[in-house]
Amino acid sequence: MRIKTIVAAITIIYGTTSPIMAQKTLAEATRGKFLFGVAVNMQQVKGVNPIESDLVAKEFSAIVAENCMKPQPIHPEENKYFWDDADKLVAFGEKNKQVVTGHCLMWHSQIGRWFFVGDSGKTVTPEVLKERMRQHIYEVVGRYKGRVKGWDVVNEAFEDDGTYRKSKFFQILGKDFIKYAFQFAHEADPNAELYYNDYNVEIPAKCDAIVQLVKELKTAGYRIDAVGSQAHMHMDSPTLDETENSFIKLKAAGVKILITEWDISILPSPYSGANISANFKYSKEMDPYRELVPDSVQMKWNKRVLDMFGLFLKYHDVIDRVTIWSLTDNVTWLNNFPIRGRKDYPVLFDRNNQRKSVVEDMIKLAKKH
Ligand code: XIL
After folding, report:
1. pLDDT for position 126
2. Would you list the DSSP string of 175-209?
3. Third-level CATH fold of 26-368
4. pLDDT digit string (tens) for 212-222?
5. Residue having the nearest C-alpha atom to atom 18 of ligand 1
6. CA of residue 333 to ligand 1 center, whole Å
7. Which residues form the catalytic set?
8. Could you give the 3-state DSSP secondary structure of residue 331?
9. What is the pLDDT at residue 5?
10. CA–CA gap between residue 260 and residue 359 (Å, rounded)
11. Residue spans of the chain under pLDDT 50
12. Long-range contacts for 87-93 (Cβ within 8 Å, ≥24 apart)?
């Protein structure tokens, strides 16, 4: 019998938690270096699939909400908040002794249209928008004060070329909307860590713009603890060098680094960003691994995971957390982004909720650092 079959048989008989299967987890292997987290969905929090909930609880030292704390789900209408899901998620993390972080307070995506529309149906004035931001941030951060370690205060304020994204926030308030958001978050929970979060942080112009923002915030006396690099990666980009250079720049700017949404798509990509409104047409050529991933491709993906993870370990003095963007290949957002209906394999657990072989190699690598 092949080893894999034996392991699978033991897993079925005893479950992954049996003493026979007691293995070190990535969270244990990285303890003292950085937190090892995962983005969770509500099915996992509610135990709809107990195997997934169990894996989230056991394998990770931190969790973040994949969706339920974003502006639209948590604040669908003016003066109407929906707390049930976020309350459950925070309680789930506490029960499992995990660090809970908040994603995200101000973002141009997944925010109710109402946020930018005034009574007359016209775009709100700067004063009204600022006051809505204050209320939203005070309510959300205030509710979880002392329970959520830190917040992605602003998500994705820059374009890849380093210019400010022309979001509604920017159009109405200019770049100062970022300062207001950090100020309100700090007022709502003075002990919470505050983060700026973005994708493609490895692009030099974008990284430079983020460093400049960090400097401006610090000089003006605002709290900012870390920059979150989403790290939605592809097979060939970003390169290790590009990634390392972004770490060097952020470290020099005097902030911690968080790898907030790590995944490595194994599929060809028509697009290198993570702006969630991007959408491209399906074709078979863009979805080549419906039946299986060829060994050569799998090996290349494994190497890429290990190379990147090795780099994260090398910078563990400044990297506080590495979070995987979803638990299994079954539930990853990349099956539907930026093309709907594909089969991607970008995370560390497979479609049968099994650890991929690369995890053992990651654990070994963590021991060496
Ligand atoms: C994604 C979620 O994974 C999806 O379930 C949702 O439909 C869209 O958003 N950058 C972010 C995350 O900051 O919030 C996004 O999450 C992925 C890109």
Report:
1. 98
2. THHHHHHHHHHHHH-TTSEEEEEES-TTSHHHHHH
3. TIM Barrel (3.20.20)
4. 999 999 999 99
5. 274
6. 7
7. 156, 261
8. coil
9. 52
10. 18
11. 1, 3, 7, 10-20
12. 88/42, 88/45, 88/46, 89/40, 89/42, 89/45, 89/63, 89/65, 90/144, 90/147, 90/148, 92/40, 92/45, 92/57, 92/63, 93/62, 93/63
Angle formed by the axes of helices 295-314 and 240-252, to 10°? 20
Length of the chain in residues, anyone? 369
Encode pLDDT of 236-294 as tens digits: 999 999 999 999 999 999 999 999 999 999 999 998 898 999 999 999 999 999 999 99
Ligand 1 probe mutation, 42, 67, 108, 155, most atoms within 8 A of CB: 67
Q: Would you state the pLDDT for residue 369? A: 87
Does 109 contact ligand 1 (Cβ within 6 A)? no
Q: What was the pLDDT predicted at 12?
A: 46
The response to whether residue 193 sits with its C-beta less than 6 Å from ligand 1 reads: no
41 lines ligand 1 (CB under 6 A): no
- Provide the pLDDT for residue 16: 45
The tokens of 151 are what?
A: 């917040």
Q: Do residues 52 and 70 lie in contact, with contact meaning Cβ atoms separated by under 8 Å?
A: no
- Domain limits, the chain: 26-368
Nearest CA to ligand 1 atom 15: 276
User: What is the identity of the amino acid at 317?
Assistant: D
Three-state SS at 39: strand
Phi, then psi, of 150 in degrees rounded to 5: -165, 160
CB 72 less than 6 A from any atom of ligand 1: no
pTM assigned to the model: 0.94
CA distances (Å), 129 to each of 134, 173, 181, 187, in order?
9, 8, 11, 18
Q: Please tell me the distance from the alpha carbon of residue 123 to that of residue 129, in angstroms, as a whole number.
A: 9
